[in-house]
C-alpha cells in the first residue's frame, strides 16, 4: 500500500521516528497510524517510547468545571521536571485533558484497566443481542472478541478520539507532547464529578 507524505509527516511529528521508519511502519499497517505507532514502539524507533520508562515525579493537577456548575473534572498529569510542569503548553494540555474527560466520561486510563466484571456483564448483553439477531454460535466468539476490544478502547481515556482533534487519539496527543517537551508525560489519575 502506498502512503501519503502527509501521513508520514504526521506520524513523524507524533513519534519522533525517522521519515523512513514512519513510511515503513505505515506501509506495514496499511495506513493505520495507531498500528504504525505500535510497530514503531516494538522496533524501538520511537523517542517517546524511550522516555516512557523515566520517572515522573512532577506535574500538575488541572480542573475543568462545566458552565452550569453541575459537572467537574480533576486530572493529574505527570512529567519529569518542575521546569516542564510550569510550562504553559504542559498546563494547557492538562486543562484540555480535563475538558476531554468531562465531555467523554472515560472509565479508565488504558484499556487493560477496564474491570473484568464490567466486561463480563457487557459480554452477557452482547451474547443475548447476537443470539436474538440470529448469529450462528460458531461466529459468536469472534464477534464478542471484537466487541470487547472496541468497548475497552471506547471507555479508556488513551484510546478515545481527542475532542479538540478527533483525527488523533489522546494517546497520540500525549506522544506528540512527549516529543515536543522532551520528557515522559503521563496521566496518573482522574476523577469526574456530576450532579
Sequence-ordered SSE layout with sheet pairings:
Layout: H1 5-15, H2 19-28, H3 33-42, H4 47-51, E1 58-65, E2 71-79, H5 82-85, H6 88-104, H7 116-132, H8 137-154, E3 161-162, E4 165-169, H9 170-181, E5 186-194
Antiparallel strand pairs: 1-2, 2-5, 3-4
Oligomer: single chain
Largest sheet: 3 strands, antiparallel
Strand order of the largest sheet: 1-2-5
Question: Residue ranges: pLDDT <50 for 5 or more in a row?
Answer: none
Question: Which homologous superfamily in CATH is the superfamily of the largest domain?
Answer: Elongation factor Ts, dimerisation domain
Short synopsis of the structure:
The protein has 195 residues and is of the alpha+beta class. It contains nine helices and five strands; from the N terminus they run ααααββααααββαβ. α7 packs across α8.
Structure description:
- The chain is an alpha+beta fold and 195 residues long.
- It folds into three domains: 5-45, Orthogonal Bundle (Helicase, Ruva Protein, domain 3), CATH 1.10.8.10; 58-109 and 156-194, Tetrahydropterin Synthase, Chain A; 115-154, Orthogonal Bundle (GTP Cyclohydrolase I, Chain A, domain 1).
- 53% of the residues lie in helices and 17% in strands.
- The strands form two sheets. A three-stranded antiparallel beta sheet has the order 1-2-5.
- The termini are far apart.
- The model has no long low-confidence stretch (mean pLDDT 86).
Keywords:
195 residues; alpha+beta; Tetrahydropterin Synthase, Chain A; GTP Cyclohydrolase I, Chain A, domain 1; 3 domains; 3-stranded antiparallel β-sheet; two-stranded antiparallel ribbon; 5 strands
